[in-house]
Design goal:
The protein has a 7-stranded parallel β-sheet with strand order 3-2-1-4-5-6-7, with helices on both faces. It has 8 helices and 7 strands; from the N terminus they run E-H-E-H-E-H-E-H-E-H-H-E-H-H-E. The chain has a single domain, classed as NAD(P)-binding Rossmann-like Domain (Rossmann fold), CATH 3.40.50.720. With about 260 residues, the chain is α/β, with parallel strands linked by helices. Helix content is about 45%, strand content about 15%. Helix 1 runs parallel beside helix 2 and helix 1 packs across helix 8. The N and C termini lie far apart (about 40 Å). The protein binds NADP nicotinamide-adenine-dinucleotide phosphate. NADP nicotinamide-adenine-dinucleotide phosphate binds next to helix 1, strand 2 and strand 5.
Length: about 260
């Protein structure tokens, strides 16, 4: 049977790579982004292509029916949208096996320049959304006594970053939420883990100059930024690991921190 996977923030970057990875293995994927549109449709097409490529002769994916891709546009910091997102996903596929809380935004600036609106937007988009999505999928996972929730966090949630206090707080909150949720849900067969990413080559780092990024790469023992595909492979792997792995914040930063 095809697994069903929800990925928030899947129109580009890490979320898109995660969606493609799961689709390639024959999973049904529900892909979301706040703006939707062409980018999200493009992810849907890439998911279908990845699956077709994976089922071509001489490859391993043969045992499930053709997976479906369901794009749903909306803002995961809005709890009423999240209720609809999860309900629509469940109505369509009848089960939810994996939730990947990936949607996120960043803000680089001094604490004095982080006004109330910016603070609330960062916390609501990055952290409150994790709670809203987790809360809504739990009843469906409880019925199956099975499920994986994987949160995309950041090394700044572990150690904090200068000029990224709101972002660091949101990701530190995700780390604590991950550990708390793992304890609460372990008796029900649901694992909750987070991947704390280092610097990954996506639009999120477009605010930095190429000189800054080159200098940053030199500080990373692996010698380069990570790729969205590397993070996607880790998320996919965690979703296939036994439920005994739970409550973990797995740092993926090329040895940087
Ligand atoms: N890149 C890094 O170096 C890095 C490092 C550590 C952690 N991370 C984390 O990895 C995750 C993905 O980041 P990325 O680098 O792939 O960023 P990205 O390329 O900027 O993509 C962000 C994604 O999140 C979506 N999104 C933003 N706000 C949303 C909302 N309110 N509701 C639904 N979707 C929303 C965007 O949708 P639209 O296209 O519609 O705007 C987009 O699909 C984030 O949680 C980020 O904090 C990234």
């Amino acid at each position: 049977m095809n697994r069903t996977v929800i990925i928030t923030g899947a129109s580009r970057g890490i979320g898109r790579a995660i969606a493609i990875r799961f689709a390639a293995s024959g999973c049904n994927v529900i892909i979301n982004s706040v703006n939707g549109g062409e980018k999200l449709e493009e992810t849907a097409e890439l998911c279908q292509k990845a699956y077709q490529k994976a089922v071509s002769p001489n490859t391993a994916v043969t045992s499930c029916s053709t997976p479906s891709v369901l794009p749903i546009q909306g803002d995961v910091s809005d709890p009423s949208f999240v209720r609809k997102l999860i309900a629509e996903a469940h109505d369509r596929f009848g089960r939810i096996d994996v939730l990947v809380n990936n949607a996120g935004i960043s803000f680089v600036g001094l604490i004095q320049d982080t006004d109330d609106l910016i603070w609330q937007k960062i916390i609501n988009t990055n952290l409150s959304s994790v709670h809203y999505c987790t809360r809504e999928v739990i009843p469906h996972m409880l019925k199956e006594k099975h499920g994986h929730i994987i949160n995309i966090s950041s090394v700044w949630g572990n150690i904090g970053a200068s000029c990224e206090a709101a972002y660091s707080a949101s990701k530190g909150g995700i780390n604590a939420y991950t550990k708390a949720a793992a304890k609460e849900l372990a008796p029900s067969g649901i694992s909750v883990n987070a991947i704390a990413c280092g610097c990954i080559d996506t639009d999120m780092n477009k605010c930095f100059s190429s000189e800054d990024l080159t200098q940053l790469a030199e500080e990373i023992p692996v010698g380069r930024l990570g790729t969205p595909e590397e993070i996607a492979e880790m998320v996919y792997s965690v979703s296939n690991l036994p439920e005994y792995l739970t409550g973990q914040i797995i740092t993926a930063d090329g040895g940087w921190t």
